[in-house]
Design a protein that fits this description.
Blueprint: E1 2-5, H1 12-15, E2 17-20, E3 30-40, H2 42-49, E4 66-74, E5 86-89, E6 104-108, E7 112-114, H3 121-124, H4 127-139, E8 148-151, H5 157-168, E9 172-177, H6 180-188, E10 193-196, H7 202-209, E11 215-220, H8 223-233, E12 234-242, H9 255-259, E13 264-267, H10 275-290, E14 298-303, H11 307-316, E15 322-326
Amino acid sequence: MKAVWFNQCGDAAEVLQYGDMEVPEPGPGEVLVRLRTSGVNPSDVKKRAGLQPAGFEDGFVIPHSDGAGVIEAVGMGVPEEKIGARVWVYQAQYQRHWGTAAQYIVLPALRAARLPDQANFEVGACAGIPMMTAHRCVFADGAPKGKTILVTGASGRVGFYAVQWARRAGATVIGTAGSEARCEQARQSGAEHVLNYQQDDLVDAIEEITHGQGVDRIVDVEFGLNIELSSQVLKTGGVVASYSSSKNMNPEIPFYSLMFKNITLELVLVYNMPDSAKMQAEQDIYQALTEDALVHRIAKKFPLAQTAKAHAAIEHGGLDGCVVVEID
């Protein structure tokens, strides 16, 4: 099979190799998936660059956690009826050498979720980290129906889906973005109120929108930069669910401001969130894709042989939507 891998961390153009590998065989409880797409996420790029731990000491790494394809074989204990099923896969390269930047992958059957016929393989490549992270942030503290949710970075990969999950569940959504073009992207996701954090006074604007009540929950893309804002605009008993703090990785927390409001902090990492949350996300994603109820954005597509360019596109930034590697 054709695959992309790296043996050491570094610049994508220097360390990513493209060539032939043996097709793996599924063991007990595993499935062999013929992949058609591979999703490229910032965490994949950071692992390759050495900014995040690989989860093991040495050896090759086929990058990427997300992808989609068709089950071609099953291991012992997996029903043969699964052969031929269209699936999206997630957590493929979490503490494993084998990711989705290859024609084939073997992984536990429970990490291969049904992909309805209404969704193409490109959409399937976006279901893992972007859709599941957004789902967890919205639902981690219970059903959001009737709540007011602030989604920071509402035009981003995760934020765009978070707005949609919240709206679908009956919440009122306030989104933020950093330019007029990205504010328009946030509106396309369904946010009722969109604020430009480069121009608007967010505290005053949110107070006006909520009639002085504040928001119930925040889905936050930059915890460290936004924690002061969060402490001001949350209601008593509110929740911050954050999945990133890349611009301030060791933030100071306004403890007493948060404590006197009884604020809950939910820090979300999709790889090791509870299995019950993963199963619920799988079910809700299947239902939403079956109903064609979500808006998707594919920012760029690259062939497998140009995976290094896909990584460079993520590192360059400025993309609205998911980056997908197409696999022949």
